[in-house]
Amino acid sequence: MFATLLQATGAGDKLVTPEVPWSHLAPQLILVVGATVGVIAAAALRGRLRRSVGAVGAAVVAGAAIVSIIPLWHRVSNPAQGPISAVNGAIGVDRFSLFVTALLCAAVILASFTAEAYLQREGLDGPEFSLLLLLAAAGGSVMAGANDLIVMFIGIEVLSLAVYVLAAMHARRISSQESGLKYFLLGGFASAFLLYGIALTYGATGTTSLLRVQSFLAERVLTDDGLLLGGLALMLVGFAFKVGAVPFHMWTPDVYQGAPSPVTGFMAAAVKTAAFAGMLRVFVVGFASYADLWRPVVGALAIASLVVGAVMSVVQTNVKRMLAYSSIAHAGFVLLGVDAASAEGTAASLFYLAAYTAMALGTFAVVTVVGGSGDGAHTLDAYRGLGRRRPGLALAMSLFLLAQAGTPVTIGFLAKLGVIRAAIDADQWALAIVAMLTAVISTFMYLRIVVAMYFAESESESDDRGELRIPWGVGVTIGVAVIATLVLGVVPGPLEHLSDDALPVLVAVDGR
Amino acid sequence: MSPNAYVLLGAVLFGIGAAGLLIRRSPLVMFMCIELMLNAVNVTFVAFSKMLNDVGGQVVVFFVLVVAAAEVVVGLGIIVAVMRRRSGISADDLSLMKG
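Structure tokens for the assembled complex are given below, as produced in the milestone run.
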């Protein structure tokens, strides 16, 4: 894309800049402009208004972005018009990118409600918190739509840089800053690998545009594809790190434990979703002709994530670490859908990500409440007797945990069913069996928390920890997550319909 | 030197950066290693761009530079925040969370 641009200047012609169809990029623009305006407004305001501009502002902006997606979805679904390729083929607007963007915006809304209550309790002053969530969502949305590997890299960095800051946001908790530093160092490491993979792919194919990589590989057989394979491997490492797949998961438990609880929920839900969106677009679509080579590697990552995630989660005593390992196991399940390398697998992955977004945000909203002032009470002991002290909260937590375990009538069951079916249709029996077995092991861990809440006698009566307050913001998040987990578990039709439609496509630049 | 040698140079620099990040324990030096890795990628992009006779690779370098600059802002901020709490810290001391 850049080559044609610069050749135009070299020839002495007027520089032809690509046309930017602003209206087609509305969701991303709303997110970025909203975050920028929010930061300026926050600098000008004082007092209570200042704090609420964060949560309410972020929710309004993310809501506006979702509203702006609806007409685009209809426009893209219209067979006469089809998906759009914008900015000279750098970014695509298709149902896949719109679906993921909507999911990210929903995660921002729920996470910012939880964050508002969290900030108030911790006495932290920061509308930046929610506004950084918006920027992270904008980065993730760019990743989902990227039709060029460099745009993908910029999206991943915008997302990551915002989340590094969010993880280190709690100024008085040293573990929060420690987790921010760890996440930053290892995240930068992984980004460098991803970028080097892009460079090698550029060297092998002569372009960073996914569309041209795809057609280049479809048209010819490389006699010496060492460079390309190296590039593919390094890019896979970068993505595997971002989704937290074993053996690139080492950062996950530490970062999840140390980061502020609402941020952990956002990381589990949104960062995973965005990273998987990028992975699906690059590997399943861009490198479709090399599927035979990358599928076994993704399959191995899936098995390792499922086994390590399930087994390690059982031996933990800290609930946040348990949930971190369980998120690794969930990444393994989504990798089943990626490994299938089919339309069905992609749809199943998206459905799983949507389901996990609801379950993870709900779970970590409960964790935020139970964590108490100082965000430190995350051992299994803190959950003992919760069923007596706070029956509603314990019920919601049990629902989220059982949904994550894959209990029927919840969305978690359908999500697991979808990816396992996709794996079986792709003749990956071994993967499917490992997934089912590890799901049983994970269930043990989820039940441990449930048992602690209902059946374990708390050695000291509840008074020493004081009354757990459930602020309205957290209440809203938990309520929405409960409704999503149950209602979509019984009536999955609408979401399944959307995720089936949301397949990534690469569109040629029109007129060129 | 042929562009091939520069591709090799890029690979060596990237390797030095990666090894340094794994071996060194000071967060600041580890961060410098990440920067070295990013710049190794820049060398690789320019070398490929020369080999392929395509300016695209050179334009990419500007994007990477901007990203690296943004990373410095955020990274140094986090490192300074941690250092202020515990001076002379090394990556081995970051062991509050284990298990």
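Residues 23 and 30 of chain B are 9 Å apart (CA to CA). The radius of gyration of chain B is 17 Å. Further analysis is deferred to the final report.
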